[in-house]
Amino acid sequence: MSVAGNEIKVMRGKKCPTSTPAPSADDPANITLQNGSSRNAAVVVLPENNGSQKQLYCQDV
Predict the structure, then answer these.
(1) Is the Cβ–Cβ distance between 15 and 36 less than 8 Å?
(2) The whole model's pTM is what?
(3) CB within 8 A of 54, min separation 6: which ones?
(4) Could you tell me the strand order of the sheet in which 41-45 lies?
(5) Which of 19, 31, 35, 47 is the most buried (most CB within 10 A)?
(6) Which positions ≥6 away from 2 have C-beta within 8 Å?
(7) pLDDT tens-digit profile of 5-56?
(8) Does 60 or 54 have the greater pLDDT score?
């Protein structure tokens, strides 16, 4: 899935990957979520890091 710098995405039935991708200049940035149960959800955001690099953050909820 892709996430742009102005988005917060909540994906039902998914879980965050075991490792977070390295920072990049890509916007939108891509992340591969793991399949989860119907009770899992993942929240993904792409905040700006230092003006040129961005870091995806993923949190299981």
Answers:
(1) yes
(2) 0.84
(3) 5, 23, 24, 25, 26, 27, 29, 46, 47, 48
(4) 8-12, 41-45, 57-60
(5) 31
(6) 28, 29, 30, 31
(7) 888 999 999 999 998 788 888 889 999 999 999 999 999 998 877 667 888 8
(8) 60
Map tokens 């991708």 to a residue.
21
Distance between CA 56 and CA 49 in Å, rounded? 10
pLDDT confidence of residue 39: 96
Report how far residue 50's alpha carbon sits from residue 36's, in angstroms, rounded to the nearest whole number: 33
The structure tokens listed for 41 are 């959800």
